[in-house]
Amino acid sequence: MKTLDQIKQTMRRDRVFDFMVSTGTHPVHRGEIDTSHGPILYVENINVSFDGFKALNDLTLYIDDGELRCIIGPNGAGKTTMMDVLTGKTRPDSGTAYFGQSMDLTRMTEHEIASSGIGRKFQKPTIFPEHTVFENLELAMNMDKGVWASLQFKLTGEQKTRIEEVMQTINLVQQCHTAAGRLSHGQKQWLEIGMLITQEPRLLLVDEPVAGMTHQEIEHTAELLTGLAGKHSVVVVEHDMDFIRSIAKKVTVLHEGHVLAEGDMDTIQNDPRVIEVYLGE
């Protein structure tokens, strides 16, 4: 098992490497997102094809600053591909995706996008199981440091306070010194969300957060995500309709790579097109 210091050293080396192999543009700094017109995310006419299959087909949608948006749709609708495009993992064949009015995500590396203030939580939690909850949050905060600052990184009192605040938010204060691998499935999901929010992303992409959770864990996850909206913009991809109803003010339905319908949950659940391709399954 690697020690906490060894993991920190590896992460610092990786950050230097990421910096050296970047496109050569100036580093993107958090907090420089222009949302003066309202939206924080502009996705326009995005197309992505894989071996002839059109995963995204002229996809256009907008997410407002501070909004919590839910994305639903059948398997193969393009939900994961959309998030891959927004985080730089997949390059679109055509179309644009802007973070604020000036950051073109289709021209940025994955590292630059993460540094600009977009965080992504995958369905399966990615944590350090042998390290405590506090240490996981410390490591996540460390990843958010600049290259040279990371080489001499040490938590300040303010940063320790921030970690304590995050533990309170994710309801893991009592598990502060517990190894992450010993947490329940739901607690691991909350920890990963906490690891993201220590980095203070402006936009948080969350993939199927309540899959496999107990009813009580689902309720807390709903409280957690609705509590994050406002300070953060939150995009949630999920299949659990009861959960979606508990958190969503606006829902976007994807089908065959494009937006099929959009509106509040009552509108979506009564839309004949949505019933036919998704809710009627």
Structure, explained:
The protein folds into two domains: 158 residues, Rossmann fold, CATH 3.40.50; 77 residues, no CATH class. β9 and β10 form a beta hairpin. The strands form two sheets. The protein has a six-stranded mixed sheet with strand order 6-7-8-3-9-10, sandwiched between helices. Strands 2-1-4-5 form a four-stranded antiparallel sheet, covered by helices on one side. The radius of gyration is 19 Å and the shape is globular. By secondary structure, the chain is α/β, with parallel strands linked by helices.
Map the helices and strands.
Elements: H1 4-20, E1 39-50, E2 53-64, E3 68-72, H2 79-86, E4 94-99, E5 103-104, H3 110-116, E6 118-121, H4 133-143, H5 147-151, H6 157-169, H7 185-197, E7 203-207, H8 215-228, E8 233-237, H9 241-247, E9 250-255, E10 258-263, H10 265-269, H11 272-279
Parallel strand pairs: 3-8, 3-9, 6-7, 7-8
Antiparallel strand pairs: 1-2, 1-4, 4-5, 9-10
Helix pairs in contact: 1-4, 4-6, 4-7
What is the fourth-level CATH superfamily of the largest domain? P-loop containing nucleotide triphosphate hydrolases
Q: What percent of residues adopt helix (DSSP H or I)?
A: 25-40%
Proportion of strand residues: 15-25%
The number of helical runs is 11
Please give the radius of gyration in angstroms.
Answer: 19 Å
- Reading off the top of the CATH hierarchy, the class of the largest domain is best stated as Alpha Beta
- Element string (H = helix, E = strand): HEEEHEEHEHHHHEHEHEEHH
Which overall shape is indicated by the principal axes computed on the Cα atoms?
A: globular
Strand order of the largest sheet: 6-7-8-3-9-10
How does CATH name the architecture of the largest domain?
A: 3-Layer(aba) Sandwich
Count of structural domains? 2
Mean pLDDT: 87
If you consult CATH, what is the topology of the largest domain? Answer: Rossmann fold
What are the low-pLDDT stretches, counting only 5+ consecutive residues below 50? 12-31, 147-151
